[in-house]
Predict the 3D structure of the following.
Amino acid sequence: MALILPYKEFSPRIHPSAWLAPNSVVTGDTEIGANCSVWFCTVIRGDVNWIRIGQKVNLQDGVICHVTIARAPLTIEDLVSVGHGAIVHGCALQRGCLIGIGARVLDHAVVGEQSLVAAGSVVLEQTVIPPGELWAGVPARKKRHLTPDERQGLLDTAERYVQYRLHYQGVDAQIPSEWLPQRKRNDDIDFSRQDRNSGRHSY
């Protein structure tokens, strides 16, 4: 069961359809909307300012969400994906954007609708990323516009996580076959191929 804690007079308000991993933490003046998923080891600290999370948001494993006292709350709009190990701090993430693995988004930054912050990037304070752009680097800079297919892909990621959460809630939800990895069976793998120096299989 997730650890849900009040802070002073504020307690988290979480929609009943949201799924929180057992070791996630949510505190204080935090609202989480419908069909969200908060994954393992994620921390959402709405203590010294408020946090508002829309619908169909996924905060993947190890994400940290925090705020700055009296200065920078955190807003995450609908259909946002925040990748593993990312930190989003006192910023605004607009509808359908995606924050890549291990990225950092700092106070008063705005990530525009259906934009992508690449893995490992740092979006500095007060940076404004327009809609539909790819930003990358330290500090993050615009690389190019996203294609229509890429923008749709960001929304598809959020929708997939809506489905994934259902399985953890014990619901037998169907996932389209094109979303699933094409796993090899053991009898399709040549186990005789090994790296003789390391003793490891080379497939």
Remarks:
- Residues 194-203 have pLDDT under 50 and may be disordered.
- The chain has one helix and 22 strands.
- Residues 116 and 134 are 5 Å apart (CA to CA).
- The radius of gyration is 19 Å.
